[in-house]
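TA notes. Do not distribute before section.
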Amino acid sequence: MNLQKEKSNSTISHKLHGLDHLRTLAIAFVFIYHYGHIFDSPKWVTGIGKFGWTGVDLFFVLSGYLIASQLFEKIAHTNSFSIRAFFIKRFFRIIPAYLFIVAIYFLIPFVRERSTHAPLWKYLTFTQNFGLDLPTQGAFSHAWSLCVEEQFYFLFPFILTALLFFKIFRKSFWLILLLFISGFIIRFYVYQHFIQPNIEEDNIWIDWHKLIYYPTYCRLDGLLAGISIAALFQFRPVLKEKISRYGNLLFAASLVVLSFAYYICEDEQSFIASVYGFPLVSIGYACMVTSAISPTSFLYKFNSRVTATIATLSYAIYLVHKITVHISQGELSQLGVAKNSNMMLLICILVSVAAAYLMNRLIERPFLRIRNKILSKK
């Protein structure tokens, strides 16, 4: 996931501690969810991590906000932006570490948490999330969310360019609303025609993931919510100032909305969860992100070196955590550490963070330096 703020002179370049806290929350949610659902784990992990799948949705909201904020600020000042610079930033931030993990999965089979994976071309084209069949393509399945984001990164600047060219950028709110409503319609149609008729079948969860959970056209809610926040804070300064007064209230509102989402998504594959669950989760996290960037919020004011560090490593942790947990459990269980013990969980966390730190030092940072050199020559 794109979870590290870009260095720039923009209004969002100053340290936003609140977003670091949310990145840490998101990666913790994802880790505990995968640990409890894929690997042997303590019983309490599965219970606490039941809602952990929404960590990806929080990442979507964060990505939508951060990427759109950078582009919107340039548009506000110059009525244009550089597509070249945008893709250079995205490429060097995301691709090197991603390709490194793809290579590990394909070249070193014993690291895979599942025996099989999708074809290589799907990972290289970021289309693995379409038609993803978990029983036969379960290894590195979490790349689906990276596919959603990359498809968003590819299309978003061209959509903005078209809106600016036709001088309808200020009316783009209606496009966001249209896409948001389209998500409801698509999920409703898919559920009624492909899920509901086979709801009693034992393997319906496979089709549900393939047709509703993974496809980009069903999962745009979080990215659209993040874009909306960025647009509001950039182009509606009066409304921004009013909203920012209630940072802590926004956080409380996010907890209320997410609690309701937890309730209706208890059966994840139900009709109400499938059609309304994703947008409700996205709205809840949108309130939380808005709280985190509001100066009146405790999230904004609180500075933590721990969450800042985890936030920096969150992309690498996301990429590597299934590999590290799989290897750690396999090796340590032979030394007498029970796979479902709290000790094993702690060790897996530490190993995942350590592996992410090495990736950050050896891959991410060097390529970011190359990126900065290329951009500075412009």
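Switch to the second chain here.
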Amino acid sequence: MAPVLMYSTQVCPYCRMAEKLLGAKGVTTIEKILIDSDPSKREEMMTKTGRRTVPQIYIGQTHVGGFDDLAALDKAGKLDELLSN
């Protein structure tokens, strides 16, 4: 299974929904970077993704985007393939 990295905050409901969806797909480990506890990580996230909101999810080297993007990938039947790479 491809590694999953997620920029997150401790109180983000969309982050929790993303974790739940990924868990349902068999993901047992998510590397979380909490941008609310380390402001330099927010800058890092914005530089890497061009976005300001969380979650920002990477599967392997692929930037998926936020929860809506993740859910759209799943609905399109492409999430399983991305996770298996």
